[in-house]
């Protein structure tokens, strides 16, 4: 059987409208009361004739209101989380799918200091779900929510997240979903102790640069990439842009590990720029990526500015019709100021 949220457009729209209605109703009856009622329904499942779709409906209602739950709620939510983490292997795929959604929506509750001990088992559960094709996309979205909201607590789990990134490309995730996960990891990298920043940035950026450089080496100017696939440089450039946009330096000096890692990326970026200089579609995305690089380091060092200016100027003289280089120069001046 397929996933409910991937059914017909009409049914997906119906579920969305139901979710909106539930969010309106809870302001009258309170989120905690609804959560309690849904949990009681799940509890009776083992002794009554409650079907999987009824249990999934209860989980669906919970995920619709999860962000309204007060962070200090300590009676029902911990039991719900425990029940999700202990779901049997044989549970219906739609129940597991909605449970993953629920965990993502509980991100603010998880981020509360009182519940930080639940983070590790939740991450282990999501890592398990991420490896299941039908659950990969929704799991990545939930991980993004948790990474962004629980960034301070997630620092000690960074190595595990980087391991997760290593398998992302094997999961055939939509690129926007993968980008969301990369954003979440980049936000956490910005929080880690300074001595770990350089290695983390090299790892997550390198996983985007390596395929780009492979494309540079293996394709010619006549090669037409297939859009929205890993054979398209834009696929990787957009991922890299998302990472660079959410990183942050810890100090305004050229020895900052983030600055060092970004400056070291330029030779690779230069090769990419040279290879695709005549393709305005790819160049536009490259310029966007370069803009985030410059914005990230321009207040700390000029080491990146001179080689970028030299290459951009040379290409502009060579390909005058490509006005994107002028655009990037204008933006560049803004960041130098």
Automatic annotation (TrEMBL):
One of its GO terms (biological process) is protein import into nucleus. This is Transportin-3. Pfam families: TPR_TNPO3_IPO13_3rd, TPR_TNPO3_IPO13_4th. GO terms for cellular component: cytoplasm. It comes from Schizaphis graminum (Green bug aphid). InterPro entries: ARM-like, ARM-type_fold, Importin_beta-like_NTR, TPR_TNPO3_IPO13_3rd, TPR_TNPO3_IPO13_4th.
